[in-house]
């Protein structure tokens, strides 16, 4: 399966008189891992909801391989795009394996049962997130971290060429954070992921888009985006940023106290 190109063009989302996202453009080229970062309330989740068709844009478009995502048939889009959202669906009264098997639904007709290939893909997805041992457990009895891994496995079983994830490392311990992001890095798919941990974003993402108050501030490779000035402007924190000698990725160290002498820069809408 070929990876998908995602293009967000001048997207604006509102809730009443409040702008959730204002005139944001973004491109994820086939096979890239693109990170959305920014403080709470910056518009990351709202932007993702427009991509996976929960929030309809007021203006602008979401394009998947050039086609308007909001005009595509639901089944066709589901064969291309999988989403892992923050809401865990903890009241799902199914076993873990049954939840992961739901990822195969877009590839079936109404009354089709699971094939040997479906079973293989479900097993592989469970194994990828270290959840094989949870297979027969009830989903609603799992911890938050276990549920998150199972929902990621469901998305993997769907075999998407575009994967959209909203804070997928929430509730995961360090080992599983690294394993999950490593899986995303290796997938033959395009990935758009919102992350809070800037060091994880710097290591695993090809490019970052920084949102603040619903507007795009800057985008580019992590080493260009994650600067002390940017962190002061957007997050209001003092920080040092160095290139890690072993990973080659920017490493952010936050410092006590408030940054001084930094004014908010104008949003940069020239996304590449």
TrEMBL record:
Source organism of the structure: Streptomyces endocoffeicus
CDD domains, A to Z: ABC_Iron-Siderophores_B12_Hemin
SUPFAM superfamilies named among the record's database cross-references: P-loop containing nucleoside triphosphate hydrolases
Keywords, ordered alphabetically: ATP-binding, Nucleotide-binding
InterPro entries documented for this protein: AAA+_ATPase, ABC_transporter-like_ATP-bd, ABC_transporter-like_CS, P-loop_NTPase
Molecular function GO labels: ATP binding
Domain spans labelled ABC transporter: 6-238
Keyword ATP-binding among UniProt keywords: yes
Protein name: ABC transporter ATP-binding protein
Regions crossing the membrane: none
Lineage: superkingdom: Bacteria
Pfam families named in the record: ABC_tran
């Amino acid at each position: 399966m070929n990876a998908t190109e995602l293009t967000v063009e001048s997207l604006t989302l509102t809730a009443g008189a409040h702008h959730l996202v204002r005139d944001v453009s973004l491109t994820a080229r086939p096979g890239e891992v693109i990170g959305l970062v920014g403080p709470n309330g910056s518009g990351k989740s709202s932007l993702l909801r427009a991509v996976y068709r929960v929030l309809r844009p007021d203006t602008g478009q979401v394009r998947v391989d050039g086609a308007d995502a909001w005009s595509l048939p639901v089944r066709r889009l589901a064969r291309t795009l999988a989403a892992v959202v923050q809401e865990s669906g903890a009241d799902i009264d199914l076993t873990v394996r049954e939840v992961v098997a739901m990822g195969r639904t877009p590839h079936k007709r109404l009354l089709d049962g699971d094939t040997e290939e479906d079973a293989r893909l479900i097993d592989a997805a469970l194994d990828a997130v270290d959840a094989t041992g949870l297979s027969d457990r009830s989903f609603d009895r799992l911890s938050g971290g276990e549920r998150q891994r199972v929902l990621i496995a469901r998305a993997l079983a769907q075999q998407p060429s575009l994967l959209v994830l909203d804070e997928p490392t929430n509730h995961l311990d360090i080992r599983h954070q690294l394993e999950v992001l490593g899986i995303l890095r290796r997938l033959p798919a395009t990935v758009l992921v919102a992350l809070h941990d800037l060091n994880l974003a710097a290591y695993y993402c090809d490019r970052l888009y920084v949102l603040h108050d619903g507007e795009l501030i800057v985008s580019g490779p992590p080493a260009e985006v994650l600067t002390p000035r940017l962190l002061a402007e957007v997050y209001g924190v003092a920080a040092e940023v160095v290139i890690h000698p072993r990973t080659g990725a920017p490493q952010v160290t936050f410092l006590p106290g408030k940054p001084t002498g930094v004014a908010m820069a104008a949003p940069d809408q020239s996304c590449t």
